[in-house]
Amino acid sequence: MTTRYRVEYALKSHRRDQLIEWIKGLLAVPFVLHSQPTAVYQEHSAQLSAVAEGTHQRYADIFLDVENLILDHINHTRSQNPGKSKLKLLVPTVGTFFTPLYLEDAFKYQDRRRCISRRRFVAPSFNDVRLILNTAQLLGIIRSFPSSVELITFDGDLTLYDDGENLTEDNPVIPRITRLLSQGRKVGIVTAAGYTEASKYYARLKGLLDAIHSSTLLTESQKNGLIVMGGESNFLFRYDDSRSQSSSSSSLSPDSAGDNDNNSKLAYVPRKEWLLDEMKIWREDDIKELLDIAESVLRACVSNLNLAVAVLRKDRAVGIYPLAGSKLHREQLEETVLVVQNTIERSSVGSRLPFCAFNGGNDVFVDIGDKSWGVRACQQYFGGIDPARTLHIGDQFLSAGANDFKARRASTTAWISSPAETVQLLDELHELEGH
Ligand code: IMP
Ligand code: MG
């Protein structure tokens, strides 16, 4: 049993979130003891709701206990002793919490919507717990600060639009993002998609950028609250209304390579204007060396796993993507990510330079830097916004092969599973703020 368990764990730990799995395990006990599907048809509805009420209370108690363990963990972190908290012993992978998580209230909120405690056959699931954690995080920010969240950063693919698609004018997230801007909040799109040309981002984000441009509601300074961070933490663009008309002046410095599109509504921001001090010491020869290693490992995987893909080497990234419309298997993607990540981690340049190897759904990329640097650079660009007042929304939060995971070091986060959930989350924020 032990061996089987360990093998399973070693093979699958990168596909599990330990905190969520642990909470699920705690909830399984009252589910089994109180909600088991005993002859449902014989019970009266009064009995049914009494059982549901009892189960609701037991689940709520568990969430309150976890909420208190997180508070205790926050206190240990503040006193420079995070390793000693009880939560850290129970869930060794647990990281930093920037705010308390109001799990009991979040559970009650989500239970009203999802009727979790009324279920007799399906135990509280990964998705139930994930959504409760998201609500608890929103409450954590709202209750910690009178003006709530100041900066919201969004991942692109699967968070704002479907994988590989564009943000078109009919996307329901557009009015939600303009609402955030109209409230004076800052918005960053922190995507792995790495292009040096503003026109490429315009092509992907056209619906949103056009809507901001034509908005009569937003002031100029509110419109300037939008930035795009590409290649995880490599290329910064700011919204620029003046790039909506054709103009002939376009002086190209090496640092603004390709930024020659005057209709893109985005302006390239030179690195010297936004790099964090720690990023200024990243050396070009290290960047080349790391990408060389990544490229040779990717090529070895292509041959070893017989993948029908092309290799793409860029300025700050290298990746593989399938040829003409074919689809890679999950196993091929995960194996490639784990091999490349392990090899770079074991190299000496891998200890000098941050990088992010991830499974993009149907491609694998290795980027220089990661979203923790991307989110931090956005915070600094807007004058130093606190991590606790920043929320990063993304779909990739598994520990290996996922790029939003790294943002947890820089800000609070919400883990969504589709663009529709992003819309729901933004509406939830609006509602919980009492609008
Ligand atoms: P995200 O979900 O917005 O972070 O976008 C990730 C996707 O962007 C990847 O799966 C790739 O398809 C695409 N992409 C394009 N260029 C790059 C790059 O330079 N690095 C990583 N991903 C890239
Ligand atoms: Mg994504």
Automatic annotation (TrEMBL):
Residues 245-256 have a biased composition (Low complexity). Pfam families: ISN1. One of its GO terms (molecular function) is 5'-nucleotidase activity. GO terms for biological process: inosine salvage; nicotinamide riboside biosynthetic process; nicotinic acid riboside biosynthetic process; nucleotide metabolic process. Its cofactor is Mg(2+). Coiled coil: none annotated. It is an enzyme of class 3 (hydrolase). It catalyses: IMP + H2O = inosine + phosphate. Its EC number is 3.1.3.-. Residues 245-264 are annotated as: Disordered. Keywords: ATP-binding, Hydrolase, Magnesium, Metal-binding, Nucleotide metabolism, Nucleotide-binding. Homotetramer. IMP-specific 5'-nucleotidase involved in IMP (inositol monophosphate) degradation. Belongs to the ISN1 family. This is IMP-specific 5'-nucleotidase 1. It comes from Monascus purpureus.
